[in-house]
Backbone:
């Protein structure tokens, strides 16, 4: 009887050991050419920066890391003290990485099914990306020559390519609802999406993805987007103007103002500075008919902010808390990229969102010409 108990106990120990051996984990085996005995850091992005998952010293340019992740997710592999790094999808599998210290971001990754799927996804855009670069070269040449009419025409071509790519992204999500790449694709689209569109795309995802941090973040964003969706009353806020005087959004509504564009921008934002002439033109054409602009800057220094206002001849009211992406109204309005804008009617109801270029002029004309 005692021998039987010993045998059963031994079998249990063996079974537990076998079970533990089969527990999923990742094992990264990597080589980085051109590196000394530096430290390699594995980290993941979190709000406000990165969280280190593991770090190890290189030995003759080689390293090994092991651990467990709850699901396939995007991480960053970097050399301590150097900027940049290699972004890739990690999962509980044997992963091999090869890179060069001077260009670690171009390294190769094998052994991750999610990364292979992500590579295939990116390859879908090779043709349209090449097309876009050629069109953009023509656009830049037209701008440098001062041919604004031609530049405006070429800009429509860029928008058309952009729309085609967004359609491809939406099709990928619809066709791959359980893919761990899908949440990242929705994030790529997030700037373009109204609340109802984001809700529709999130609704297409398999429930197994609910644990993914990107999905959690997108659902939080959806709550904010619904509060500032077209048809909603714009939330009020108050910030200081360039002279340090507090100005509220609602103080700019009513009276002669029939339409107010709440424009989120910054001096350091290239696309914002490119869009500013369009906003200036609409302001010049329609200000006397009731159109005004309320500029909200995400700048960090007053000097840069004021200089950009003067250089771009932005003659309307400007406010800022000079907190960069910690700008409170930007958070309130779920602004994740700039330029971003909200068009309000005289009662503060949102009637348009992210109207750029000709789209802004057409919307303003459509509303004011009927009043």
Residues:
């Amino acid at each position: 009887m005692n021998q039987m108990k010993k045998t059963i106990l031994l079998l249990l120990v063996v079974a537990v050991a076998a079970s533990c051996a089969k527990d999923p984990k990742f094992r990264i085996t990597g080589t980085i050419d051109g590196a000394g005995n530096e430290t390699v850091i594995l980290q993941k992005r979190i709000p406000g920066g990165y969280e280190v998952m593991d770090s190890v010293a290189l030995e003759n340019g080689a390293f090994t890391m092991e651990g467990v992740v709850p699901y396939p997710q995007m991480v960053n592999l970097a050399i301590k003290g150097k900027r940049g790094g290699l972004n890739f999808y990690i999962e509980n599998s044997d992963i091999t990485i090869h890179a060069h210290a001077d260009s670690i971001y171009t390294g190769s990754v094998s052994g991750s099914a999610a990364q292979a799927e992500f590579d295939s996804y990116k390859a879908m855009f090779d043709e349209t990306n090449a097309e876009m670069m050629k069109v953009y070269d023509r656009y830049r040449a037209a701008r440098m020559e001062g041919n604004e009419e031609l530049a405006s025409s070429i800009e429509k071509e860029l928008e058309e390519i952009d729309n085609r790519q967004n359609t491809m992204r939406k099709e990928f999500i619809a066709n791959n609802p359980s893919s761990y790449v899908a949440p990242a694709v929705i994030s790529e689209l997030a700037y373009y999406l109204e609340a109802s569109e984001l809700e529709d795309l999130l609704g297409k995802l398999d429930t197994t993805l609910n644990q993914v941090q990107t999905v959690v973040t997108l659902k939080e964003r959806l709550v904010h987007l619904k509060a500032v969706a077209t048809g909603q009353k714009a939330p009020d806020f108050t910030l200081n103007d360039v002279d340090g005087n507090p100005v509220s959004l609602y103080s700019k509504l009513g009276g002669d103002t029939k339409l107010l564009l709440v424009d989120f921008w910054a001096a350091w934002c290239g696309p914002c500075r490119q869009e500013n002439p369009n906003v200036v033109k609409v302001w010049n054409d329609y200000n006397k008919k009731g159109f005004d602009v309320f500029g909200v800057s995400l700048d960090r220094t007053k000097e840069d902010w004021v200089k950009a206002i003067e250089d771009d001849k932005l003659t309307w009211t400007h406010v800022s808390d000079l907190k960069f992406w910690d700008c409170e109204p930007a958070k309130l309005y779920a602004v994740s990229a700039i330029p971003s804008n909200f068009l309000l009617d005289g009662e503060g109801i949102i009637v348009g969102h992210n109207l750029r270029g000709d789209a802004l002029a057409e919307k303003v004309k459509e509303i004011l010409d009927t009043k």
